[in-house]
Automatic annotation (TrEMBL):
Keywords noted in UniProt: Membrane, Transmembrane, Transmembrane helix
SMART domains named in the record: TLC
Membrane-protein topology: Multi-pass membrane protein
Species whose genome carries this gene: Oryzias javanicus
PANTHER family hit by this protein: CT120 PROTEIN, TLC DOMAIN-CONTAINING PROTEIN 4-B
Transmembrane spans: 46-67, 87-105, 175-194, 214-232
Pfam families: TRAM_LAG1_CLN8
Name of this chain's protein: TLC domain-containing protein
Keyword flag Transcription: no
InterPro entries: TLC-dom, TLCD
Amino acid sequence: METRELTVVAGSFVGFQLLFSVASPRLSSSITPGYRRLPPAKLTEWNSRLVSTVHALIVGFFCLYILWFDDAVNANPVWGDPNLVKLNVAITCGYLIYDLVLLACNWKTMGDSFFVCHHLAALYAYGYVLTRGVLPYFANFRLISELSTPFVNQRWFFEALNYPRSHRMVVSNGVAMAVVFFLVRIAVMPSYWASVFATFGTPEFERLGPGAQVAWITSCIALDVLNTIWMYKIARGCYKVLTGRGGAKVKAAEEKKSSVNNHAD
């Protein structure tokens, strides 16, 4: 890993930590008085989700820029010039390390072994990009999914502030969440996998070696299975809200769900 990428990782870690501990409390309390009335555990998660939203917007739009304008990466998705992609991945790695530290420091209220495994696996996979510069197009393409994160976090903010599920803003955000989630995680699957299959049997693919090949394909399959399951649940919930179905049973389920750790959707 080059000095530039290490600097970006470290700088991102420090920046997200400052956003969590300094900027988020000041900004949130000035935007909504309900922030100060939250219990300590929810204040911590609120600040965490605001950081999550900022990270998602940065890497999500940077990802789109690379997909649209980085000709070197698009021309050779396996071994193209990874400079811009490395920057984007380094920002994400800094965020993942910050989030792991946050989870460790607040394990009783936010700890979740699933997310620890997720973050460690992501750091391992992105390590290939930062150290070997491989699969820049595919690593960057996966980050487009972050564009759905702000809507997921906004759903949690509304729940934390006790907005009714029938509120216009809650419904609008729910519909937007379902649409964006579908666009950036489901609709892109055919294009993504067409690009993957196009590399099979090429010298560039063989150059990766079996380790990178297996890690790449298996992680992609697992992610897309999870995304499909989540999309089904989001679509079902959105349908119930729009049609007014579900009644007390759905309301009780939502109340139970809001009490569960929603740290990193």
